[in-house]
Amino acid sequence: MRRFFLGLVLLVPFGSAPSSAEPVERIAAPAGCESASPRDEIRPLFSFDSKGGPNGNGALVIAADDRDGLHGWWQKSFSVSGGKYYRFRAVRKVHEVPLARRSAAVRILWQDSAGKPVPTDEPAVSGYLKGWKGTAEPEHPSDRQTDDRGWTEVADTYRAPAKATQAVVELHLRWAPPKGRIEWANIALSETTAPAGRKVRLAAVHFRPSGKSVAGNREEFAPLIADAAGQKADLVVLGETLTYFGTGKSFADVAEAVPGPSTDYFGTLAKKHNLYIVAGLNERDRHLVYNVAVLIGPDGKVVGKYRKVCLPRGEIAAGIAPGDEYPIFETRFGKVGLMVCYDGFFPEVARRLSNRGADVIAWPVWGCNPMLAGARACENHVYLVSSTYEDVSRNWMITAVYDHEGKPIAQAEKWGTVAVAEVDLDQRTRWNSLGDFKGELPRHRPPWAAGVTE
What pTM did the predictor assign? Predict the structure, then answer.
């Protein structure tokens, strides 16, 4: 394994930024590092703190003066061999920067020996990429864990395009507030082996229970779960409010505790088949009733639940209470988010779940516009698994697995069948002129309303 490091050599210690209208730049660049800015009039102050960084071995610093909106970056080139894999890693710490996901960004540019962009040679993984011969777009490494001292790891693994001979790493502070500052440290680009990938088999059940009873409804799903298990599914998604469907009872009549009888029943099946089950139920919590999706693990226990946030008029009239949380659940294959039916008509729920790291969104859904289902998957580059009560003849919602471009890659059209698709959660979907859009999302999407920083 070869490692390339930013060699940090003390030149000039960091000094505070001046408060004049024109910042006075005191560049103290380690060997091979260069400072840059889109325009001189928004150029911040660059320096090197020899005692900075989490280990005290130095940090590259970018600081704003008393003006807002300054933008600049440190950059350094590393030699690479086309076709090989490289692991990028750095840590950064921000000061007086409220939205680090936008302001504290890394870009990696693939270039040839003349410093020019190189063509992409990514394999076509979807229809939009077929025949694409565009440029290898910049990479945007992801923010990882933040330690108790405020240092955040930024890291990812990439395959260098075939014609690339260098990778230019840019370490940004952009759109800085007055007196905003960032420290970058422990920057490395290491040759590594190809990632193993995270393959998972996602399943969705297309079924309407008979409605003979609460217990009868849930028991009718048992052979379908067995069918999914026979197709080696890791996760199987069932319908919305499945103990209510067709029974003639009210939501309140069928509501139960979570954990409770229905989760116990599906827990037995999850353990028997060694898979995860998502079941749509009605939950009772004291005097309140919620429409919920529950994730049950292969150990038979409840992993977690999601209470439907967006309620249609019928549920409001029935006295259903809305949820107000967007939990993400760790599984043995990745991170799973849940949403329920009407949530899909609005972009906010899927966006909150994907912002929190969901690889897959499981979606029990009575009915919805399938174009919106595709949009939720596409705009977040997340796999979406829907289980609906709609018949395909109605040309409305479908039971399917959607890919990162919002296309159904598996669909169950007949009642009593299961749609199964194998996907790689680590597979990047690259778009013409954008590259890895999912990697860019945190850096480019707008801020939320005041007070919400994710």
Answer: 0.91
